[in-house]
Every structure is written in C-alpha cells, then in structure tokens.
C-alpha cells in the first residue's frame, strides 16, 4: 500500500513528494504500488531518482532529463552531421559555388543547434558542437587555400576564363568564413589576408584584361565573349543545371542581337551560333526560356 507519511515539500519540484531513505525502498514502492496509483490517477511512477535538495530519493513518472534532451537534440545532431558531410563532399569535388552556399547553411544550422543545446544545458552536445565547428572551419580553410592556389596558377598561365571566376569563388568562400571563424586566431587572420590578396589580384587581373581588350577589334572581343557564353553553358549542361544553361543561352542571344552591327557581313559568329543551337537541344523542354 502507498505510504501516507514521509511526505516533504521538495524545493526543487516545488510540491509535496514522498521521501525515501534509499534507492531500494523507492524502487520497492514503485514495484508494489504502481498499479494502484495508475488506476487512481492515470499515471504511475516508473523510476527513482536522488534529490539533492531533500537529501533522499523520490519517484516520478517523467522521463530522465538526459533522455528527453537526447530526443530533442539527437535528430538535430544527426542532421547537422549529414550536412557537414555533404559540405566535405562538395569540397572534395571542388564544386566551389556549392561550397560557398552550403558552408553558410551548415554554419547557421550549427548556430541554431548551439542555442538549443545551451537552453537545455547539454554539456555533451555542446562538446559535439565544438567538434562540428572545428571540422567546418578546417574544411572551409582548406577550400579557401585550394581555390587561392588554383586562381594564382590560372593567373600565371593567363587563363582568362577561369582566373577572375576562381578569385571570385575564393573571395565569396573567404568572406563567409570570416563571418564565423573565431576572431584574432591564426586561421581568421590568414583567411582575412587571403581575401584581401585575392581582391587585389582580381582587380589587377581585370585591369590587364581591359588593357588587352582595348588592343583587339570589336569583332574579336565579341567572339571572345560569345565563346565564354558557350563554355559556361557547357559547364552547366555537364552539371545538369539546365535552368542556368537555358538562362545563359538567352543572355547570349540578347548579346548577339545587341551587337549585330559588329558581325554583319562576317562568318565569325556562324560556328558559335551553331554550337549554341546544339546546346539548346540538350536542354529539356520545361527548362527552355522563350
């Protein structure tokens, strides 16, 4: 039968609770009284726990705090971990645009995860968050330095198409990283320097390109621009980004129409137009811009 005495006001629970001298007595109470309590109140105690406020043992029907916290934070950890793994894949495959966009997503997911973990006072998950943050910073730093090296190499080899693009990728990734890297650390200062250097080098590169462009004829500049469109469209097609491919073909057509006077009477545009038409056929109908 249920004891009628040994009740105390528990400061921690802010209500009357039965106080047991030992865990064994508390568990025996659950064993011999839970069915009767369930019939009377609809809920029955399922576990015993030690109360530091009362200096003894209570019983309760609620789940342990650790279990309830884990139910809330466990799925968030799994989702954040999976996002970080996807991010690592983008880095490995050198999909720099996805690296920039996905890196920002992972960071904000970690921020949200951390706020919940702090609210629930979960030391274990705060340790997980620290590890996830360190991994993200490490991968982001490696991505920035890799893009920087590629951009410098392209610049030295005068690869016009890729140089400015890679500098831009590096700057975007670097700026997003500076938003969440710990300030005044070696990594933060290094990334800050890389971003500033890439901005300066991109500016110098684009200035050289403008000077070179002034040496060419309008027709040569138009041919170069259209070949750039063709190259970009092919990249989008290879990555199955059909809407982007269709959009760039649309831009190419607008550019041609605007500069008809430049190539009028010349066959220089014929192979480029043929290539664009061939690329357009590779785009599924629902992605075509009319």
Task: Kindly describe this structure.
With 290 residues, this protein is mainly alpha-helical. It folds into three domains: 56 residues, no CATH class; 133 residues, no CATH class; 71 residues. The chain has ten helices and four strands; from the N terminus they run E-E-H-E-E-H-H-H-H-H-H-H-H-H. The strands form two sheets. Strands 1-2 form a two-stranded antiparallel sheet. Helix 3 runs antiparallel to helix 4 and helix 4 packs parallel to helix 6. The N and C termini lie far apart (82 Å).
Feature tags:
mainly alpha, two-stranded antiparallel sheet, two-stranded antiparallel ribbon, 10 helices, 4 strands, 72% helix, elongated
What kind of sheet is the major sheet?
Answer: 2 strands, antiparallel
User: Helix fraction?
Assistant: over 70%
**Overall morphology:** elongated
Number of domains: 3
Which value, in Å, is the CA radius of gyration? 32 Å
- Number of beta strands: 4
- The count of helical stretches stands at 10
**Average pLDDT over all residues:** 86
Helix/sheet category: mainly alpha
Going across the biggest sheet, name each strand in turn.
1-2
The termini sit apart by 82 Å
Q: Secondary-structure element order, as H and E?
A: EEHEEHHHHHHHHH
* Fraction in beta strands: 5-15%
């Amino acid at each position: 039968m249920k004891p009628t005495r040994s009740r105390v006001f528990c400061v921690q629970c802010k209500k009357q609770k039965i106080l047991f001298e030992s865990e064994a007595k508390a568990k025996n109470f659950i064993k011999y009284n839970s069915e009767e309590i369930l019939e009377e109140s609809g809920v029955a105690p399922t576990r015993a726990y030690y109360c530091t406020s009362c200096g003894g043992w209570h019983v309760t029907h609620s789940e342990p705090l650790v279990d309830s916290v884990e139910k809330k934070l466990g799925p968030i950890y799994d989702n954040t971990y999976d996002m970080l793994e996807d991010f690592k894949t983008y880095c490995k495959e050198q999909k720099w645009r996805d690296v920039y966009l996905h890196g920002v997503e992972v960071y904000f997911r970690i921020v949200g995860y951390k706020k919940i973990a702090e609210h629930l006072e979960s030391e274990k998950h705060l340790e997980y968050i620290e590890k996830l943050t360190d991994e993200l910073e490490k991968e982001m730093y490696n991505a920035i330095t890799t893009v920087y090296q590629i951009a410098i190499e392209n610049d030295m080899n005068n690869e016009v198409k890729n140089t400015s693009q890679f500098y831009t990728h590096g700057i975007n990734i670097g700026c997003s990283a500076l938003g969440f890297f710990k300030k005044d650390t070696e990594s933060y200062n290094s990334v800050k320097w890389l971003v500033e250097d890439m901005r300066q080098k991109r500016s110098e590169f684009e200035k050289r390109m403008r000077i070179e462009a002034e040496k060419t004829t309008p027709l040569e500049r138009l041919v170069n621009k259209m070949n750039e469109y063709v190259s970009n469209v092919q990249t989008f097609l290879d990555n199955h980004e059909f809407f982007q491919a269709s959009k760039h073909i649309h831009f190419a057509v607008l550019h041609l129409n605007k500069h008809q006077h430049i190539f009028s009477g010349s066959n220089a545009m014929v192979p480029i137009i043929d290539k664009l038409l061939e690329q357009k056929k590779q785009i599924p109908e629902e992605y075509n811009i009319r």
